[in-house]
Amino acid sequence: MDKQKKKNKGLKQIIPTLFFLGIGMFCGFFIGTVIGQNFDEERPIGQTLLIAGGLFLSMYAAIVVQLIIHEAGHLVFGLMSGYKFSSFRIFSFMWVKESGRIRLKRLSIAGTGGQCLMSPPDMIDGKIPVTLYNLGGSLMNVIASTVFLILFILFKNVFFVSTVLLFFTAIGYIIAIMNGVPMRMGTIDNDGYNAFSLTKSPEAMRAFWVQMKANEQISNGVRLKDMPDEWFKLPSDEAMKNSMVATLGVFICNRLMDKENFEEADKLMEHMLSIESGMVGLHRNLLVCDRMFIEMTGENRKEIVDLMLTKEQKTFMKQMKNFPSVLRTEYVYALLCENDTAKAEKIRKQFENIAKTYPYPNDIQAERELMEIAEKIR
Questions:
Q1: Residue 339, by phi and psi: left (phi above 0), alpha (psi -120 to 50) or beta?
Q2: Alpha helices in 220-261 (DSSP H)
């Protein structure tokens, strides 16, 4: 990777941080200004501190509420576009449709505050509606923030209430811009980027449909290896410059892993990691985890494994410490590279605790099978 690409990658990584720092600085400055303008020497200091604390809490409440509104926007506009409910996640709390029932599970993905996944309608002439579903979250934030703005104008003379309403207004518009304006947010693409990507390419449209259908099947207990072969035709390198098409390539790697076709999976992952593509950082790091597993359960050259375990990869694995495939990789590393049975057993217990509330039991079963391969080698 040349210096310019590294520089661009670094800038993309810090965009989300800058946005949230901006929110914090705006709210902190605004709270200080409001407290200063409404300072009363006769008011007890404890009451002033209580007001300041209440305003800070309202800032966090505004972020949570606007995130919920955002994901609800995807759900509402998705339903309007012919999609069906699959899952709805806020932070690590995830409601999943499983065998016709909605169940509460837990899933945390670094770089995301929430996600609404839906089952897509059938393709007609190679197309499905994508714009409203992808931009629905930002649209709902704009609608909600406009309502909060009107309420702010109505209650502008009510000190505490008007300030809280202004928080809800500003944060909603910021989240709408963050997600609606096409950009790559750290390790993932935002909604605007996805909508733009899909409208540019029929191949990206099909890749998006396959990913959403695959997710629907996973929710219904079907493993990737048992899904239709025609869904998983490998795109060309040129096509995978599109981020949505590159994600289909990742799904194909995941499917080869599920089939335990490790040699072919490793060759494909090595190729995908070497070419210039639209693959997001999250997927890149997860593929590295899979390549580490293949090396450890194959020739097990620790120097090769450690080359994959870069500083960036270690940071990612720390951020995703409760993700099944990351835990599986750490388990196998402790077992086969470090020969530390006690550490491996501790990681295995952590895995089993996560498995109890993980939304996709079939993924858990696949990971257990991979860990059993390592155990047999040990």
A1: left
A2: 243-258
pLDDT category of residue 47 using cuts at 50, 70 and 90 = confident
Residues in the chain: 378
pTM over 0.85? The answer is yes
**pLDDT, tens digit, for every residue of 255-281?**
999 999 999 999 999 999 999 998 989
Residue whose tokens read 């590279």: 337
Nearest of 268, 249, 254 to residue 224 by alpha carbon = 254
Task: Identify whether the C-beta of residue 235 lies closer than 8 Å to the C-beta of residue 245.
Answer: yes
Q: Residue 87: enclosing H or E segment and its boundaries?
A: strand 84-90
Which ranges in the chain belong to alpha helices (H)?
Answer: 3-37, 45-80, 131-154, 159-180, 191-200, 202-219, 243-258, 262-274, 281-296, 302-308, 311-319, 324-332, 341-355, 361-377
What is the SS3 assignment for 105? Answer: strand
Asked if the model's pLDDT at residue 1 lies above 90, the reply is no
State the burial class of residue 256 (Cβ atoms within 10 Å of its Cβ: 0-12, 13-18, 19+): buried
> Residues near 145 by Cβ (< 8 Å), separated by ≥ 6?
66, 168, 169, 170, 172, 173, 176
Q: What is the largest CA-CA distance in the chain?
A: 76
Q: What is the pLDDT of residues 325-350, one digit of tens each?
A: 999 999 999 999 999 999 999 999 99
Contact by Cβ (8 Å): 240, 277: yes
